[in-house]
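Note to self: keep these together.
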Amino acid sequence: MEFGVHLPDAGGMAQREPFLAYCRAAEDHGYESVWSSDHIAWPDVASISSQYPYGDNSGFPSPGSPWLDCIGSLTFAAAATERVRLGTTVLIIGYRPAIQQAKAWATLDVLSGGRAILGVGVGWMKEEFEAIGMPWDERGARADEFLDVFEKLWADERVTHDGRFDRFGPIGFSPKPVNGRIPVWVGGHTRPAFRRTARYGDAFHAAFTPPAELAAMFDAVGAECEAIGRNPAEVERTMLHRVLFDHEADGAISGSVGRIVDQIGEYAALGVSHMAVFFLQRGGVDARLEAIQRFAEEVRPQLR
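Structure:
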């Protein structure tokens, strides 16, 4: 299994020096990727009615806390690294116009030497869509169309698009991604997300999901692949999860090194090939950097 490090893109550690330290730690300790999440206008959680699908709403930063832009963060990370892949977990595809997103991603991919991973989701917070003036309704259909637009822009010299939600062209678009396209990892937990994965995804990208539920999701993705004549084995199985050493915590891979190894082993048995890790260690930047090193030195060798 490959592993990545979720970067400190939100809250008190969302600053230059901690961010650089995480990037360097990921490279130095042999991780395969670094990751950033996506929010633009963070409202007061107490004022929203939308429910975070992977837990309660209590663990998010307070309004006014830093939350770095995910594509900008990864572009910075690209300049601070040479090897690790650079992904979003996940970009909310309806937050930005399609052509603007395609340009930002192509730029990241070119400047990083082809290391970008486009992790996408449709979003869960209606209030944030409203705050940034983007439509909430039909966001799934809009996401599918935007993924079609990305494919055209990244492949064709002259592009015309006449869709339900976006119309333009003919236009030229450059630069193109280094390898002709950027891998798409589709997040979500509903049937539309599974269908989206089958149609567009190089990987299905789950978040914080217990093994039994994740197995059912993988089966559902496989069924959607078979329904359109695609081999389910073409879709990589990936996820984001939290890790906490020495303490047991709900919703996290946690506890002793042996317990953490056993929990990750359950995901490996399901075919998870890449796990982005959000380190929860208490004690600030130094404690989390120590956890990144400890995972590489004490956990990974037992998983090979």
